[in-house]
Amino acid sequence: MPLRALLIGLVALLPLHAFAEGPAKPEARATHEMVSAANPYATDAGIAILREGGSAVDAAIAIQMVLTLVEPQSSGIGGGAFMLYYDGDTGKMTAFDGRETAPAAVDETLFLGPEGKPRLKSEAIPGGQSVGAPGVVRMLELAHKAHGKLPWAELIQPAIKLARDGFVVSPRLHYLLSVDPHLKKFPASAAYFYDDKGEPLAVGTVLKNPALARTLEQVAQDPESFYTGRIADDIARTVQQAPINPGKLTAADIAGYQARAREPVCPAFRVWKVCGMPPPSSGGVAVGQLLGILQGTGIKDDAPESAKAVNLFIEAERLVYADRATWLGDTDFVDAPVAGLLDPDYIARRRALIEPGKVMAEAPAGTPPGAPQAYRTVTPSEIPATSHFSIVDRWGDTLAMTTSVEAAFGSRMMVDGFILNNQLTDFSFAPTEDGRPVANRVEAGKRPLSSMSPTIVLDAQGRPVLAIGSPGGPLIISFVAKTILGVLDWNLSLQKAIELSNLVYYNDALILERDGAVWADKDALAAMGYTLKEGSMVSGLYGVMIHYDDGGRWLEGGADPRREGTVAGD
Ligand code: GLU
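^ thats the input. predicted complex w/ glutamic acid below
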């Protein structure tokens, strides 16, 4: 039976409450190439590049430049990103790291107040102190040198044209402007995003960004010009002279930024390998641990969104978040036990802590093999923004990229037409706890721990079958794992898996997605001992599945209805 028919058959057998309600998106299919991204302008730019004979990396560059313009709340050239790339020719996978770095002049006291106590994150975000040296452009340049087919300059043109001609302000951009508490404190941002009366630009306004067009023209001629010269000087000056929280980022910090090509982590989940980012993201390790714990439970036989499945997922997730907060940090600076955390025996010991049908009183971090003795738990709270896109090109190159300015509109400061990140607030503010160092403490030149989880799943033959990822701060781990379970364990279509209810355990309560189908089993969840709360949990899962049959392959896209994105393919 063709896989497609099998999927439809299984889906029909599932109880009705298995699917999230809300604006269902059509399931997209294609044969040769596909793009799934969080904004229609970005999807259009990406598919146009693929049609011109560009590679997945070429399309990613065009998409990122357009996102800088049309989704300034989420990502851009003033931020950082992680890109996981599978080379269709060689079968080799690379984890490109474009995470921001801390300036040379800061130390672990960066986010401490006058009495030596950690400041409130909400107070540390706006202004210059939170801005790390941006990594997106150099990371894209590194990937383009290795895997680009079209000339760099050509890939920037769609964004330049759109910045000159204008784009239509979307409902999401308008909404985020209308609730933002800080943007208006910075003159360049106030002038760009609000009208003469101080009102946020209305939905449908055609917004032009000539400053960004000029910046991108320079980047098109020479990407290095972003890191040396006018743009770098403008970034450093804006950070140092910020009216709120002036920071210490210098032109030398920006010039010295290095993108890195790392080895992905590829833990096993049943017959598959789930490949993701190594540190400085916690994503690959955490998604791998979560699926690793779950594969030894009966979750595959439970209905999606049933109380039994939710219980197993949430208890496993609690154990994973505890390990993440304790053991992980930038491995260029700290000794994080990555292999130990993914060790199957260790994962089995963690799984044994879960009693099905019960809520653990506590879910402490474990002690994985190879763990240094010193670290102490501190969970940074992250405020979700960020964007994810997935691409498959006609050569079988497969790409998943998550890209971020951290909070919505990052530091809120605009330079030369783009937003500067606030990624440094992803560090733990407290350098020590109970006298022991915190793995994710601030250090000069270090990259803050991330949750971003661009993921590529390989089948038993080593072929890519899924590219996926999401925004959502620490919840990214849960959103991505949920989707992978949906397609691999529950045989849902990618679209249905994306639409499954989001959930998380936070502050001793189980937070269920508002209006999610998961509420149907709320009494059973309460009977297990959960305190139930509701939340909005806006994921932005954008993925492509690759199906192989009769020597050929076909592509299936999925786009999260919680954001504005689309899928396009040929
Ligand atoms: N700054 C977060 C991280 O790197 C991402 C924020 C978000 O997804 O909204 O994990």
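Residues 11-263+380-461+471-541+551-569 form a domain with the Glutamine Phosphoribosylpyrophosphate, subunit 1, domain 1 fold (CATH 3.60.20.40).
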